[in-house]
């Protein structure tokens, strides 16, 4: 997993670090996401569709999901503003009043800005009774620098405390050091030139950093070097494989971990979900779409399948 030369088993921190990175690949149309700009987008028509879906005798969940899972986050924000202007009502509150359970949680996640969504997920992870490292590392290590900066700003606005303060109070030791370093966002900017002397120095440093007492070396290199440098030092694996593993694990229990499924499918739907699907099929021999079909039950099933988008043959 990590850069090692002997048979020493890498520590948990090294395992985590070696799997994370920032997605940097694009397809011919500019994204490897499953969700792209809806070309026939009409904000007025979408507002009317949503009004009809919640104004009748029964809530038309299919119509609601048909709109929200086929529009980008930017288009959904336009719908929210237009709904407010035309009805003097908040779309999110209107849908929350009409829905419940996992479907309500999906709608909340879809209608929040990306920064609001991640800020809430990070806060929940840090304040939950369970371990915080999984979600916190996912958000702090796989989001772009600009997005992370916005997320931390929203965190402070919404919860009246810096995320760093919550990290200090809820974590300890090397995990705390890692999360604080990631939250500072001090990663080098890629200048277009690779310093191969520094790459070699880092490779050698990582080969020597096997004992737990040397994990600070991993933290420093992983949180400060730019992505192109880390790829050449073999510190990180591809991000889609990391998310494919998380999705597979979330589907293994008798009751799927819906929070993990929602967070990953929504947050990666406009960036690299196609790549995640490919890695999932390659590693587990079954498509993500089929796995969701088999494991997910209830009213949120169609929404998650819509975000996944399609079968991989």
UniProtKB/TrEMBL annotation:
Belongs to the annexin family. The keyword Ribonucleoprotein does not apply. Keywords: Annexin, Calcium, Calcium/phospholipid-binding, Repeat. It comes from Vulpes vulpes. This is Annexin. A pair of annexin repeats may form one binding site for calcium and phospholipid. The keyword Nucleotidyltransferase does not apply. Signal peptide: none annotated. The gene is ANXA9.
